[in-house]
Design goal:
By secondary structure, the chain is mainly alpha-helical. About 75% of the residues lie in helices and about 0% in strands. Strands 1-2 form a two-stranded antiparallel sheet. The relative contact order is 0.06.
Length: about 725
């Protein structure tokens, strides 16, 4: 199946989704899930029969600008395609059960599949411009998904917050892509990879890197942009499980992994990514530790996991790349499952507060089994795949080129806090002491428990048989990230070594954190940061002040005064002209005045006198008459310099202009007062500057000799 067909089918499914929901109602989720499931099977078959050669397609998009829709399916994009379509299948099924009987189900599925198409286009694009288009499509569709319950003010506010943060990062990313394409001479990623040494040596490398990182960090909720992700928990559980654990927040990770061969390997890359990743890792784990809402617990722990992924990309070693990709797969499986479990608990029990949950395994056995398996994978408990991922992470940090001890310490503390969160989210509600709850609590339909149970079971299966994913899936992805041939071998047991001992210490510390969680919540409840001391507080303050700033700017620049508009236009043009003149202009050659006749001096003097008269005229009619004298004087100059055609045109235009001005001026009210002296001085300075700029440009133009000349060109072709 062509790669473009994948995108077309996804968009068509989005278009048909509202009609399918209207016709099939409760069964719509199962029917709509057939499309991503079919793509998942297609990708698996393609993976099993692949010889390692990427699948590529290229369609001309805007040939005049050299833009094309280039698609490429290699090891890295294959991993993401499988995650997007595989988890997307479960989300489509789960959404039908979770939203059954609610309003806006058709709208939900429409934007869900639009988002899926955006993610697929993003990970398949081999052209920076096309990648950016799909990047923004995910931001826009996620806005509508977060604001699904649009009557809820909190949902609308959270959706707008996510859109503004990721949208601002998207603008930075666009600027970075434009710079990258300009320096590299192409927008094709593979062509740019060939010139990576030249790009890294360019003076524009650091600005490109900073702009690209701003886009990736905002999308993947890196500190200090992390606050939008917990706020997005106002979205329904299917949205949180899909966008905020497995796909959208991983888009920034994908971008950094994709551009590693191009921009990675430098000190700036290493320090910026490791610092941002480490800060996000610790901050997310710390903020998650004292939360009581299931989804917020998972959201902040997701922020911490995203920091870990960025940190591993910053380390830039083969082991770090392998650890990053394994952990990305692990995290997508267990976090997507736990978000769906949280939604099911809220759906069936009516609360997400962990202080009110307990003993649910008896009434929610299948959901509870999924939660426990996913939580064990989150803790890194053997024999689940999470254990392999955690050991690889520690191994990568021990081999970090710098500050390995600090990174290890931060990782142990953050992982311990993550273990405590996993116990609170996946173990406590189901195995802890029984709490008071509604009587009619049950596991719900198969749509609610099938997805989380299968995803959690996949973590167990891949842990027991890691070669299933190691050789076929992780190895090609590592090769794409590192741009070299590498072999990946995943093992569940490496014996007792420093990495294993670190894992044991982490588990013990995590159990200790879990034991003191109540005390930590009490301390957190007493501690209140000033609003402007938090990134979210700063964001809200800026957003709240934007309407006032816009109003003031509108009052200044859109005041209905033609003079103000002309001033703004003239000043802007003068600034651009001055920049161009100072940058490009050579010496100015003044024309000789020896050949000017006496009558020409008289004519010029008359025009100057008319100009001065126009400036000091007391009535509008006198000003129009003065302008007319200047215009007709220009026509006479054309005649004197043997340009009768220009003279005739000038006379016609000037006559019409004067007539129209007189007709209009006659109907205007009389001038009551003149402008103040400072205003007139300001206008005079700007007018003189504009006239001087035009004069300088005319003198510069007279010194330029075109080859071939314009007159020769017209002589030959007329």
């Amino acid at each position: 199946m062509p790669l473009t067909t994948v995108l077309v089918l996804t968009f068509l499914t989005a278009t048909a989704a509202p009609l399918v929901v209207r016709l099939l109602r409760g069964a719509s989720g199962w029917v709509l899930a057939m499309m991503p499931f079919g793509m998942f099977i297609w990708a698996l078959l393609l993976l099993s029969g692949s010889d390692g050669t990427p699948l590529t397609e290229r369609l001309d998009w805007v040939p005049a600008l050299g833009l094309s829709l280039s698609l490429r399916l290699d090891g890295l994009s294959m991993l993401f395609v499988l995650l997007i379509t595989g988890i997307g299948t479960f989300i489509a099924i789960y959404g039908g059960g979770y939203l059954s009987g609610g309003r806006g189900v058709g709208r939900f599925y429409f934007f869900l599949f639009v988002f899926m198409a955006g993610m697929l286009g993003l990970v398949l694009s081999d052209n920076l411009v096309a990648l950016f288009v799909f990047w923004e499509l995910t931001s826009i569709s996620s806005y509508f998904l977060i604001a699904h319950d649009h009557e809820n003010a909190e949902a609308r506010r959270s959706a707008l917050q996510a859109l503004l943060v990721t949208g601002a990062g998207g603008l930075a990313l666009l600027a970075g892509f434009v710079l990258l394409g300009t320096v590299g001479g192409s927008y094709e990623i593979q062509e740019l990879n060939v010139r990576n040494t030249e790009i890294r040596a360019s003076a524009a490398y650091l600005p490109i890197l900073v702009l690209v990182l701003l886009g990736a960090f905002t999308k993947s909720a890196q500190a200090p942009f992390h606050f939008w992700l917990p706020g997005a928990m106002a979205a329904p559980a299917p949205v949180s499980a899909y966008l905020h654990s497995a796909t959208m927040v991983k888009a920034g990770i994908y971008l950094l992994a994709r551009l590693t061969p191009l921009l990675g390997g430098t000190e700036a890359w290493h320090y910026l990514l490791t610092l941002a990743g480490a800060a996000t890792l610790v901050a997310g784990a710390g903020l998650a530790f004292y939360q009581t809402d299931l989804k917020r617990l998972l959201a902040y722990s997701t922020v911490s996991a995203l920091g870990m992924l960025v940190l591993l990309l910053g380390i830039s070693t083969d082991v770090a790349a392998k650890a990053m990709l394994v952990f990305l797969l692990v995290h997508s499986l267990y976090k997507g499952a736990l978000f769906m479990v949280a939604g099911t608990v809220d759906h069936e029990v009516g609360t997400r507060d962990v202080r009110e949950l307990g003993g649910l395994l008896r009434v929610l056995p299948l959901t509870g089994t999924a939660a426990i398996l996913a939580a064990l994978s989150m803790t890194g408990f053997p024999p689940l795949l999470g254990f392999i991922g955690k050991e690889l992470i520690y191994e990568a940090k021990m081999q970090a080129p710098s500050a390995s001890l600090i990174l290890l310490l931060a990782g142990v503390i953050a992982n311990a806090a993550t273990i405590a969160v996993a116990l609170v989210v996946g173990i406590q509600p189901f195995l802890a002491e029984r709490k008071k709850r509604p009587v009619h609590v049950h596991d719900g339909g198969v749509a609610l428990w099938a997805g989380p149970l299968l995803m959690a079971a996949a973590g167990l299966l891949f842990g027991l048989f890691p070669d299933i994913v190691g050789t076929a899936l992780i190895e090609p992805a590592v090769r794409a990230v590192r741009a070299e041939q590498l072999e990946v071998e995943l093992k569940l047991w490496h014996g007792i070594n420093p990495v294993f001992l670190l894992s044991v210490v982490t588990v013990l510390l995590g159990i200790g954190f879990f034991a003191i969680r109540h005390r930590a919540r009490e301390l957190a409840a007493r501690w209140r940061w000033p609003d402007l001391a938090t990134p979210q507080g700063v964001f809200r303050s800026v957003v709240d002040r934007l309407p006032g700033v816009a109003e003031r700017l509108t009052r200044i620049f859109q005041n209905g005064n033609l003079r103000s508009y002309l001033l703004v236009v003239l000043v802007a043009v003068l600034a651009l002209l001055l920049q161009a003149i100072l940058r490009y202009a050579g010496p100015i050659a003044l024309p000789p005045f020896s050949g000017v006749a006496a009558h020409e001096y008289v004519l010029i003097g008359l025009m100057l006198a008319a100009t001065v008269g126009t400036l000091f005229a007391r009535t509008r009619l006198a000003a129009v008459a003065g302008l007319g004298v200047v215009g007709y004087g220009v026509a006479v100059l054309y005649v004197l310099y043997s340009a009768p055609d220009l003279a005739i045109t000038q006379i016609l235009v000037e006559t019409l202009t004067v007539v129209i001005f007189v007709l209009v001026v006659a109907r205007l009210p009389q001038l009551k007062k003149r402008s103040s002296l400072p205003v007139r001085l300001r206008d005079g300075v700007i007018a003189l500057a504009a006239g001087s700029a035009v004069t300088v440009l005319a003198l510069l133009a007279s010194t330029v000799q075109l080859r071939p000349t314009i007159s020769d060109y017209y002589a030959r072709n007329s």
